[in-house]
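Notes, p. 3: input format for complexes.
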Amino acid sequence: MSVLVLGHKNPDTDSIVAALSATNLYRGRGIDAKAVAQGTPAPETAFVLERFGLQAPEVVTSVAGQEVYLVDYSDLAQAPADFKDAKLLGIIDHHKLGDVTSDSPVECYIQPVGCSNTVIKILHDFYGVKIDKALAGAMLCAILSDTVLFKSPTCTEQDKKAAQELAEIAGVTDLQALGMEMFKAKSNLAGATPRDLIFRDFKDFDMSGSKIGIGQLELVSLDLITPELKAQLQDELNKIKGEGRHSALLVLTDIMEEGSELLLASDDADKVAGALKATVSEKIWLPGVMSRKKQVVPFLEQAFKA
Ligand code: MG
Ligand code: MG
Ligand code: MG
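Output follows (306 residues plus magnesium ion):
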């Protein structure tokens, strides 16, 4: 039986491409690995796979009795429900350390860089495993996506270096143009329900016993969010909060303005807004905020610890 290589729930481009690229790495090392995902590709990821002629990983929602490598997370809340009945072999990630554990030694590569695929690129070099043109293109897109075209505060020199080297392999010369094409695909809201939009990139966190769900939509312009749609998103967020959460947040990021509008449903809205140095009002604007992992989650964790 192949070892599964699995990204997080509500998979984003990094999570899906990391399953593919880490599988390439493990196979290059002689490990029988298989890329899987906890969902089908969102529009941005579909664009990337199509653009470079790659197949989406098979969808898997149960891993009991299987051996698993995790990519792009280490939080139980983002793993399949029966993850505790699987055997964890390793983690490649770029987030805060989560709460998964193991019963035997694990191979972990976790770095504070902008993208899991940056870590995976470094590991390909380390182990001397080749990356083909199509995979390099997709890995490049994952880095452009996670670092928001290198503008996110999570972006490091290592991300830029990896992206440059991957671009050379993929034969991509204009990284910004490719990135904008990708973010335009991501900004396509047509045909999606408000619930789809919130869950497109949504993560649950256990913050000192409170369940906090945070969605993020990165758009080329917040003008795409009409007042009607904004009201619908708020209604849906209230419902999602009601499904056993202390708070549900939607971070609407304007990648050109380099800031985010926050929609919020919470048992304690003042505490959540306050943690982000904002006050509850008609429009909560968070200037400069582009990264959930670096500019939202840590401040909420802090506030909920207190
Ligand atoms: Mg991710
Ligand atoms: Mg990532
Ligand atoms: Mg992201």
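The pocket of magnesium ion (ligand 2) is lined by residues 14, 72, 94, 115-116, 146 (CB under 6 Å).
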